[in-house]
Amino acid sequence: MKISLDFGITITDCLSSDGKDLNHRSIASKEIPSENLIKDIFNDIDFNKEIDLIAVTGGMHGNIGSQLDGIEVVHVNEVQAVGEGAIELSDVSKKATSIILSAGSGTACILAKEGEYLHCSGTGVGGGTVLGLSKLLLGTTDPYEIEKLASQGSAKGVDLILEDVVSGPIGMLPSDTTAVNFGKVSKTEIDFSREDIAAGIVNLVGQTAARIATSVAVAYKATDIIVVGRTPTFKSLRNSLEQAALITNFTPHFPENGHYASALGALLVAQK
Question: pLDDT digit string (tens) for 63-77?
Fold first, then answer.
């Protein structure tokens, strides 16, 4: 059996594979990565008899040694792990020039071209931003509560859109394109609903991620954008990201199980 761990800032994704079945589990990243942590996560598996390879990636994976109880530990660069996992999960050819948007606590852009992966851009705005702003403005960090609120609200309740600030269209941009995120807040004394605030937060993050990805895709003449990570699993943020990308004629791919793309990629690289 082979196991893989991606030590994320917020969530640690773990995979185990016996060559036929792939099993995934996730835990909150509350501890510094260590050999003991790996054993605790996989305490239902006999390390001495069942495991022959361990792959690690993500933050501080360097804390883990090259062996654990005599089992080889393969350290995989995060960019390589995300790239391999994203391409494997998507229906995009390795030969195509693609931008992989890794949307986690922060957001990274990876250029994928003929099996090679290069970190080419990114932003500190991501899922962690949604949680941080929601704590400040909504008093919650529960992603499911935030998602529910955002789905019931409208970003237009707090954002200024183009038709609010200009007399006519700007190029090909739709009139309801965001002109200023949270632009209405400073211009009125009304009480904004928690639902609209949540929608505005999600819209800010989704649009920022999309605009970074589309700008890089245009610059590198990429044909596809593949979005992985846990952040896009929330419908309202995914919709915001998708709508922002469509403005520049990109329809992003959201592969199934993209939340564990990095752990899968580490496993695939290690097996090679």
Answer: 999 999 899 999 999
